[in-house]
Specification:
It is built from 6 helices and 16 strands. By secondary structure, it is of the alpha+beta class. The longest helix is centred in the last third of the chain and has 33 residues.
């Protein structure tokens, strides 16, 4: 179904999937990813969810609030520096947060140790930059995204594991057809090295109908893995999986699907955003319900043996 990949299928490895899924290979790729810079940026949530009312998030061991001031994304510590009131209930007035307990105005100049943090809206995701020792960059390090008409959907789920466990799950494509048989009919790895994985994926559409595409997985920074469709229907579409640490043993999975297609009428369909966005998000949440169990099991085994 749909446009098939043009290149012949050439497996990179031989043997059963369990044999191809070498723990050593996965760990090497994970170690390389974890050594990449991230510029201090952390994906927080869908940018469309952040409005003029402060929302609280745990990011890298800190409690933060994100909100918009005249459309501009802002971020700051969640606790008022006066007596610790939560700024989730703060009013936004002339660019400042007004504490709900005593009316302290907290603006761009800060107050004592309380200081706003750099925030970035890339049009799909909301980001915050935290001083984590990584050399800071002006903006998040992003992989290429579709340039034409596209549809985006974002999910955010929480897991009892570390960010590395989320990346390790995505660096193991061999589990796909076994652990998610409702979604994948077959996956064949065509490239497997420490920089990228490429595979031929047969997605289940309905009953016996499948759609084949070629996809590449790579990590642009230490907390992100991106799947890009490189051939077949939807070429150029990406799925960005961001593993954002919340605190010790807690990670937020923030995943953005940004889909495009050469099919006639896709631009019209993309304008039906809310309806299609919900369908894409539900499918992603179903996959991550399984994959969070995988990541949490991986973390539990490591903690048990430590």
């Amino acid at each position: 179904m749909g446009r098939r990949p043009r290149t012949p299928l050439t497996p990179a490895l031989s043997g059963d999937d369990w044999a191809q899924a070498s723990p050593a290979r996965i760990e090497r790729a994970l170690a390389r990813a974890r050594a990449l810079p991230a510029g201090g940026w952390y994906a927080v949530d869908a940018s469309r969810l952040i409005d003029g009312n402060p929302r609280a998030y745990a990011v890298a061991g800190q409690r933060l609030v994100l909100w918009r001031d005249q459309g501009t994304l802002r971020a700051a510590p969640e606790a008022c520096p006066h007596m610790g009131a939560s700024l989730v209930g703060a009013r936004v007035c002339d660019g400042a947060l007004v504490c709900p307990w005593h009316g302290l105005r907290l603006g761009s100049g800060g107050h004592g140790a309380w200081r706003p943090l750099p925030a970035h809206d890339d049009g799909v995701l909301a980001w915050v930059r935290v001083d984590d020792g990584d050399p800071p960059t002006d903006a998040p390090i992003l992989a290429p995204r579709p340039s034409g008409p596209c549809l985006d959907a974002v999910i955010r789920m929480e897991a009892r594991c570390e960010p590395a466990d989320i990346l390790a799950n995505r660096l193991d494509p061999w589990h796909g057809a076994h652990f998610h048989p409702y979604a994948f009919a077959d996956l064949t790895v065509t490239r497997a090295d420490d920089e990228a994985l490429e595979l031929r994926v047969a997605y289940r559409i309905a009953g016996p109908l499948v759609m084949e595409v070629d996809a590449r997985f790579h990590c642009p920074d230490r907390r992100t893995i991106v799947m890009t469709i490189i051939d077949g229907d939807g070429a150029g579409s990406v799925v960005e999986t961001h593993a954002t640490p919340m605190g010790p043993g807690r990670t937020a999975v923030v995943e953005a699907t940004i889909a495009t297609s050469e099919r006639r009428g896709f631009g019209v369909a993309a304008r039906l955003g809310p309806l299609l966005r919900g369908m894409v998000a539900r499918q992603a949440e179903r996959l991550w319900a399984d994959d969070i169990a995988y990541a949490e099991r991986r973390a539990w085994l490591r903690w048990r043996d430590s």
